[in-house]
Hints:
Layout: H1 20-88, H2 95-171, E1 179-184, E2 200-204, E3 211-215, E4 228-232, E5 244-251, E6 256-257, E7 264-271, H3 274-277, E8 292-295, H4 302-320
Antiparallel strand pairs: 1-2, 3-7, 4-5, 4-8, 5-7, 6-7
Helix pairs in contact: 1-2
Amino acid sequence: xxxxxxxxxxxxxxxxxxxxxxxxxxxxxxxxxxxxxxxxxxxxxxxxxxxxxxxxxxxxxxxxxxxxxxxxxxxxxxxxxxxxxxxxxxxxxxxxxxxxxxxxxxxxxxxxxxxxxxxxxxxxxxxxxxxxxxxxxxxxxxxxxxxxxxxxxxxxxxxxxxxxxxxxxxxxxxxxxxxxxxxxxxxxxxxxxxxxxxxxxxxxxxxxxxxxxxxxxxxxxxxxxxxxxxxxxxxxxxxxxxxxxxxxxxxxxxxxxxxxxxxxxxxxxxxxxxxxxxxxxxxxxxxxxxxxxxxxxxxxxxxxxxxxxxxxxxxxxxxxx
Length: 321
């Protein structure tokens, strides 16, 4: 484009940081090529300009010769008129007239030849000036021809790049929120994902701490919202990590099925105050971290623990009867 527009340097678009060393090498190569072409054209123009100057000096010399010949012609013509007067008076022979005629004809011929030389030199100067213009025009024409060849390919490459970029963009699965990956549902390289399939579980950054516990169906009658609970973090050092106090904040109304074991269970959520969480010190909780939850149920005596199975059997026996 710089050659087409007659510029002495390339005007490059702003490139991204990802352009890389390859683009830098291409730019340097194209810059050297442009500078080389400019030097070649400058040399050609300088040579043509020198030729014009030489022809100008030649014209100056021819014009001086032409002026001198005109002076000689004027002298011979004056001499010829005088000789004719003497011949008419019979004072000299007529052969002297023939001599001056020959000399005058010779001078006129030389004068005409010099004038023709001046005209030829001026024509050459005009031709060289046209060549000087043609040097730049040829470079621009060649650059335009090269661009007309490259631009369709460039447009095609841009279209292909846009299509590839779109495919890559669609291949990237982006979470709508920032957070921490908690569970990967698909981890097979090159696997096919069906529409609406669960891929990953993301815990949002800054989300409220939620502690879930699984309750056996046989224990659900002893758990209710507001009930006290103790939390023990088995992932931390048990000797240095205290138990935290919390309370039941939610109990699911129906059972859920464990996909791994197939066992049913209820889900309970435990709320822990900030003061209790501060007891963990530098221990940082992570999504999916295991812990044990102990729920304080109704007070029972040692006799009730022994008698309850018998009472349950007795009640079932009464219902069967």
